[in-house]
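step=encode ok
step=design start
structure_in=
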């Protein structure tokens, strides 16, 4: 059996049945425990699971938009205000899914901008603002998460270019890797990065390290991180080594 297929089956087993022992996975897949251990190491490096004593568990799934929208609103608003100040009138802005991007959209009213998004709440927020040229990306609707995903979304992004991308995240690892809890969102986020000149990560203090089962990008793909509190020393060092500007509550570190 190919490694890629084993990885798929391991993740499926963990998500459907909860944490599993190496011996159980070995029996299910018909391979040696040593092979399973190597697979688990690789999958953990990719942010897809967490190894525990004798086995592994899948990363936690994403929360619906409505639940997350009510959490840490003041912190998200502070980050959004600082991010909005980076943008000049006449520029194009790509807004990712998520609640912090939505709080940023609220800061853009009255500006002369082009806003591109796959975030349905951002679209609803800006739809009546005639000063903003609004581009809604196509794709499959994820109703609970208020987003558009899939190959149509990615194809749309290949036809577009933005001055700024404001990227959301589920977590930032100490090595500076940007993570997401939902695998289906990752290709869209990567396409957004490719479509943008400047990539700004919006991450409140809870995102260090936060959660995430899939790697979106490394620190080398970021230009700026806007947060409401200093990152831990290891993460901050990784970001600074990659040349990332860290903006904290209106001041700049590094």
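sequence_out=
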């Amino acid at each position: 059996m190919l490694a890629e297929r084993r990885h798929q089956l391991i993740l499926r087993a963990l998500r459907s049945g909860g944490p599993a022992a190496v011996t159980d996975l070995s029996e299910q897949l018909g391979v040696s425990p040593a092979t399973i251990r190597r697979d688990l190491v690789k999958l953990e490096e990719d942010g897809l699971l967490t190894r525990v004593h004798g086995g592994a568990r899948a990363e936690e799934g994403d929360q619906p938009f409505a639940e997350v929208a009510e959490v840490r609103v003041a912190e998200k608003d502070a980050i959004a205000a600082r991010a909005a100040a980076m943008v000049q009138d006449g520029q194009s802005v790509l807004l990712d899914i998520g609640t912090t991007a939505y709080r940023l959209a609220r800061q853009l009213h009255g500006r002369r901008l082009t806003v591109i998004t796959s975030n349905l709440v951002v679209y609803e927020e800006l739809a009546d603002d005639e000063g903003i040229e609004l581009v809604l990306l196509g794709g499959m609707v994820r109703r609970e998460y208020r987003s558009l995903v899939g190959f149509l979304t990615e194809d749309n992004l290949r036809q577009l270019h933005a001055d700024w991308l404001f990227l959301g995240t589920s977590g930032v690892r100490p090595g500076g890797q940007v993570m997401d809890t939902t695998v289906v969102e990752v290709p869209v986020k990567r396409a957004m990065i490719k479509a943008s000149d400047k990539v700004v990560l919006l991450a409140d203090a809870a995102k260090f390290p936060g959660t995430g089962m899939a790697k979106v990008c490394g620190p080398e793909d970021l230009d700026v991180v806007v947060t409401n509190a200093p990152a831990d020393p290891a993460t901050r060092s990784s970001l600074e080594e990659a040349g990332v500007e860290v903006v904290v509550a209106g001041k700049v570190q590094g």
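step=design ok
step=annotate ok -> The two ends are 47 Å apart (CA to CA).
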